């Protein structure tokens, strides 16, 4: 049989014939095509091989090392935070260096945007848009804090203990010498505890005590501490390292089951940093990130300290660009259109004469957007006027700024 005629007969089958009317079902109207064209990106940033990655590889290794040593930490950033050249960030669990920011221009959402050059620790680079990068960092990433100098994290020694200080005991860090595979094969397993006696005395009978996993132990570090409550220390350690608390059951010489609570899976340099921060009181500002094995700085929302007693304060939400203009002093009037839904917010009805008047306010508390960790400012209102259906708030002194990035 002629194969060409067989194929021709197959494709001439009436079942495969589509009429002009039926073809029209698949047509996209011209107006919809324009919408689709608008949504299509002109350019999509791509990762490519970083030709000079050898220049950056040791920098990434150093930052990882400094994170483990506590010289840097991770911090969540807000939507209004500024990303800066030369800073390190994490997105999707990968570290990147924001090496360069191009010429800033206002984007469609009025935020300054630009192409960047970002170097990634996997040896690639990208020219991702600044605002796209910001979304990634805000979403599931972190900023890496600036390098903390050794002088800022100095741990006091015996020479700094004065006669007025009360030496309350020793913080110790131990590793287990157990031959149990369920214990000896666990990397970075340490017991962190507090003793009022010397550490050597405390562990003398370790192989017979469930708290030491019924095995000898090795002292990895010990710290003499002053003016510290042992219960407070234990509470702080357990709260901070609960996600990496080692879960194990051991049996004493009488066959009684125990579940020790003071063993944690955490790198030794991080333990050292944690103890330092407990002693200096700064640990309350951190959490532990098990995935990246380093401390993560908490976002502590600032609270207003400005006394507004006796003042009438109006609360308004505002876009970031206008907020920045008020902070710079280039915007000194805030306009609000009078609508049926806001009539009672900006005006009031005087029952004595039946007329409506502008509400008087002494200050406005501006909030940027609606997210939880937003910037805000308290600004003096010098005068309030009405013009062409809008209330005009004439702004004066900036009385207070909170969460300023």
Describe what this molecule looks like in 3D.
It is a single chain. This protein has helices at 3-11, 20-23, 30-39, 57-68, 130-140, 181-184, 199-202, 230-241, 268-280, 320-328, 343-346, and strands at residues 48-49, 74-75, 88-91, 94-101, 105-106, 112-113, 116-120, 124-126, 142-144, 167-176, 189-195, 217-226, 250-251, 257-258, 263-265, 286-289, 294-297, 313-318, 333-337, 347-350, 355-358, 363-368, 376-387, 390-402. The protein is extended, with a radius of gyration of 32 Å. The chain folds into 3 domains: 48-150, no CATH class; 155-297, no CATH class; 313-402, Hypothetical protein (Archaeosine Trna-guanine Transglycosylase, Chain: A, domain 4, Roll). The strands form 6 sheets. It has a 9-stranded mixed sheet with strand order 1-8-7-4-3-9-2-17-16. It has a 5-stranded mixed sheet with strand order 18-22-23-24-19. A 4-stranded antiparallel sheet has the order 12-10-11-15. Helix content is 23%, strand content 30%. With 405 residues, the protein is α+β, with helices and mostly antiparallel strands.
What would you call the shape?
extended
Which strand order spans the largest sheet, edge to edge or round the barrel?
1-8-7-4-3-9-2-17-16
C-alpha end-to-end distance: 79 Å
Q: In total, how many domains does the architecture comprise?
A: 3
Count the strands?
Answer: 24
Rg over CA atoms: 32 Å
Please count the helical segments: 11
Strand content: 25-35%
Structural class, by secondary structure, is alpha+beta
Portion of residues in helices? 10-25%
Sheet with most strands: 9 strands, mixed
pLDDT average, as an integer? Answer: 82
pLDDT < 50 runs, ≥5 residues: 35-40, 150-161
